[in-house]
Specification:
heterotrimer, A mainly alpha (131), B mainly alpha (276), C mainly alpha (81), B: 276 residues, three-stranded antiparallel beta sheet, globular, C: mainly alpha, 0% strand, flat
């Protein structure tokens, strides 16, 4: 592939590259960071990156929002002129479920803090080994 | 360890980049995601359900099972947070703090004692109490009714504009949380007790599942709202529209109650005495 | 669609995400995560996913930031990394 071909590839899919960067950032946060709250933030960044990916595959160039006007006859609606609504539906529920899982994760974190008095993963490991 | 993690992340990124080169171009109308079932929704959802917002129609009608179980996931998360954090300590707190409103003198009463009834010039305060900002309190109280009204509008107008049960429920819950932050947790608990939030979250899921069950009893399939036409007194297409609305109300109630109960549990570490 | 605007928002999303993970003050991390969520919501609104953007604006930037702040308030604010 020529250089122009690569540049075209990068420009044609630039949203996808951002979602890859964000997924890597989130995964890096989950693995490397020792603080439990930081790990939860990393998990949320990973989730939003996946949602960004789904929203990106739903877009169509120059298409309208997935809300129809009443006066347009349904039979005249061309699918190429309306953004694909299906990934939006899947992601809408995923966001609300993500906040529910965030609540449970923070509850677990608070319980761990009550028992060990720290949020750092390595200190918790030491305390567990010595106990 | 850190080097190994970096290697794993870079490998993960390289695999994703390799996979992405095979993707259809960004914004391609003939990509696989846009060809199979979504053209049917775009073409026929308005004539089949009379709901202009396709997302709402697909969310609550075509993919009704999905949304019902998402709602029950949220309900389960609320329950899980309750069981993880809630402590039912019957013993009285070590000490209570009372502040004289006019002078700002604080009394500390040990061993579970309390002020006599009718001591109106004292108010009970949290141990990490900071002086109230009059501007924040007044501004929040002014803005709260409008937030709640907007939440109800978002639920009711979800057929024609972005919005629906999830968003409206979260906004209503955020209004209650704003009250709890700008005032204190005890006064919020007097307005919306814990028992009521649990009952409301269960009731919201019950409204959703009950609508489906009524459809089943009327001889149609589970969550096929067209069967409600006889009860509601409208034609089957409008019945689907109304069915979506009923279901959205259930979702909104459940989401609102779960958000508030999650906040109660997290902010007071399950003791329900002092909040954020 | 204004591509400069979209580019700036994409850049800010990445910057806010990395900053939320690297800052040592957990309260600051919670607020930066709220900013990240709001930038993400703007990005989705640009892409035409208005329902998703609305949900993220109320959930990600609103309620989950409050949850983070509540959890940090009840645990510790410092982080070693």
């Amino acid at each position: 592939m020529t250089a122009a071909g690569y540049i075209n590839l990068i420009i044609a899919k630039y949203n996808y590259w951002i979602y890859i960067v964000l997924m890597c950032v989130g995964l890096w946060g989950m693995i490397v960071k020792r603080n439990l709250v930081k790990k939860i933030i990393g998990m949320n960044i990973l989730q939003t990156a996946i949602i960004l990916f789904y929203v990106s595959i739903a877009t169509k160039k120059g298409a309208a929002l997935p809300i129809l006007a009443h006066h347009i006859g349904a039979h005249r609606t061309d699918p190429a002129t309306i953004i694909n609504p299906l990934p939006h539906v899947l992601m809408l529920t995923a966001i609300v479920v993500s906040v529910a899982t965030l609540g449970v994760a923070l509850a677990l974190t608070i319980n761990i803090y009550k028992r060990y008095g720290t949020l750092e993963e390595d200190e918790i490991h030491d305390l567990m080994r010595n106990a | 360890m850190k080097r190994f993690a970096l290697l794993a992340v870079l490998l993960f990124g390289a695999l994703l980049v390799y996979g992405t080169t095979d993707f259809p171009d960004w914004g391609d109308p003939s990509s696989p995601a846009a060809t199979h079932v979504s053209p049917h929704y775009i073409r026929h959802s308005l004539e089949e359900t009379a709901v202009p917002n396709i997302v709402t129609a697909v969310l609550a009608d075509y993919r009704g099972y999905d949304t019902m179980f998402e709602t029950s996931v949220i309900f389960t998360a609320g329950l899980a947070c309750f069981f993880l954090l809630r402590v039912f300590a019957r013993k009285a707190p070590d000490s209570r703090l009372y502040r004289h409103r006019a002078t700002g003198i604080t009394l500390r009463i040990e061993q579970g004692g309390r002020l006599p009834e009718g001591a109106r010039e004292f108010e009970r305060i949290d141990s990490q109490w900071v002086p109230y900002d009059l501007i924040i309190r007044t501004a929040c109280r002014l803005v709260l009714p409008f937030i709640q009204l907007f939440a109800l509008y978002v639920v009711a107008h979800g057929h024609h504009s972005p919005g629906g049960g999830f968003q409206g429920g979260v906004i209503f819950g955020a209004a209650v949380i704003l009250y709890a932050i700008s005032h204190d947790l005890r006064s919020t608990l007097q307005m919306l007790p814990e028992r009521r939030t649990v009952l409301m979250s269960a009731g919201g899921v019950l409204i959703y599942a009950g609508t489906g069950l009524i459809c089943l009893l009327l001889g149609a399939q589970f969550l096929d709202y067209a069967a409600l036409a006889g009860i509601l007194g409208v034609d089957p297409i409008m019945a689907r529209s109304h069915g979506i609305f009923i279901v959205e109300i259930g979702v909104a109630i459940a989401v609102m109650a779960v958000m508030v109960s999650l906040y109660y549990n997290l902010a007071s570490v399950g003791r329900f005495d002092e909040g954020l | 669609m204004i591509w400069q605007l979209e580019f700036i928002i994409l850049l800010l999303v990445v910057v806010c995400g990395v900053a939320a993970l690297t800052v040592r003050d957990l309260l600051g991390a919670a607020i930066l995560f709220g900013a990240y969520s709001f930038m993400m919501c703007l990005l989705w609104a640009i892409m035409g996913a208005v329902d998703v953007a609305f949900t993220e604006a109320s959930v990600g930037a609103g309620v989950s930031t409050v949850f983070f702040v509540a959890a940090v308030f009840r645990t510790s604010r410092r982080s070693r990394d």
